[in-house]
Task: structure prediction
Amino acid sequence: MIIINYLNQKLREYVSENLSILDFNIEIVKTKKEFDGLYTIVLFPLIPKIKKSTKEISAEIVDFINNENRIIKSFNVIQGFLNLDFNSKYLIDTLININPLDSFESKSELKLIEFCSPNTNKPLHLGHIRNILLGDSVSKILSSCGYDVHKTQIINDRGIHICKSMIAWMKFSNNTNPTSEKIKGDHYVGKYYVKFNQEYEKQVNDLIKNGNDEKYARENAQILTEAKNLLIKWEKKDAEVLEIWKKMNSWVVEGFNETLEKLDVVFDSEYYESETYLVGKDIVDKGLKSGIFYRKQDNSVWVDLTEEGLDEKILIRSDGTSVYMTQDLGTAYLRYQKNPKLNGMIYTTGNEQDYHFKVLFKVLEKLKYDWALKLQHLSYGMVDLPSGKMKSREGTVVDADDLISSMINKSKTISESLGKINDLDELEKNKLYKTIALGALKYHILKVDPKKKILFNPDESIDFNGNTGPFIQYTYVRIKSILYKNDNNSIEFNDIKLAKKEKELIIMLCEFKNVLNNSVKTLNPSLIANHIYELVKMYNSYYQTHTILGDKSINSFRVFLSEKVAFQIKKSMALLGVSVPDRM
Result:
């Protein structure tokens, strides 16, 4: 059993015996470095209840815990804090039985997690990368804890944004294509999304110069009107429009798949808005007939959620075209139809869509779908650059492909300067550069709590020192080198007295399972990332002050401890989607 969990259990038993209270919360924390001990029990809530002195209560608790198994070696009391140290044999036995990913039985629950879900009018960028890495890591974390996880995305391949790229291509491309221009398909189409915005702003300014107010100008610029008309034609299945749409979408989706492959991310299924929006329109129509929704005089369809603390939300525009909400209704319904065993769905999007998902979940509840209460929104903060917020329509984004290439080049430069991989062939070197680069990128993104913004600096993420992926990878490589040099494979650790840092390492290793459980509950990979960083820092301090391959009498234990640390590094980083190399 995890040490802190065992202490909690024994404390509950002690309180129950003395106070007949079954559920009485007592805080247990790590002992502060300036005091002797590993865990500290905060006694203040107990003192007025039991009405004994702090020393008496402390002695009783220690005797109670040690009654079945004498695990506590010594204790001290500082005011209302009981500091505990544990005997070496107990900690060594605990270490031997640690496996950070064991004992998770299958929960027979299918969880679907949606992430990535891009628009087919531009390439993936840094903001998408946070979404993709977060969704992929949460999928791995849930899977490791026994859930049946299905990774999916919705390709937003229709709507006014798509028509903006299309109309710009029709007007300005001279019928070129990605092959003729030697440009990756999503990059090629993205150029025309930016081109649309440039032309749109030019037309808006011209209208304002001609005496029109800004609102009128923004709503009536010719190129925007043409895009709106294109969307109407698309929904009416105009053959020429559909042909252009299919062609441009195929270019973009092919580009997306190349980028996802670079990130080592694979989906179990894909849905397309062009297929799900019709189901959504049918759902809206049924809701309209049943009185859940209502139609305004301009023929648009709405839902009134003011009694639920929200507001009115449009579901169908006055011209009959659908909105994002429409397709999201259809997509959710289809997923539950195709996966009858589905027991929960998680949507991964930026926090600017918090309100959208509150509305979506509430609308599905009003439609009386029994699964609506099992939907979750994994919301995350946006990624900003030192220069400010990224804007796709203005082309001020960090392109995902460019970023990955840049990170690989930085990894190559640093690795070559260290001169430790000269004997590897080019294929092995290139694989290593990618491993380090993706480790840097993924860890840098995932170590931040999803709720917080990220100010992204690629130079900081690739550093081999500090709280970075390469620092953790390098520690793993260091331990692998120790294991390779070791010639003593004994696992008999009789009469070994552990140093304080060895005890602290065992405690840290032992706590991982609780960290993993909390990560599942909160859908937060940063808990794992920061736990593994603390473990690595602690191990490096231990490595600097203790000889691992020295005295034969303790050599086998220290190698075994190092091996356990390496195992947990590898398994933990895998939950973040990060590989660890054997050499760097």
Summary: The mean pLDDT is 92. The chain has three domains: 3-86, 117-394, 428-575.
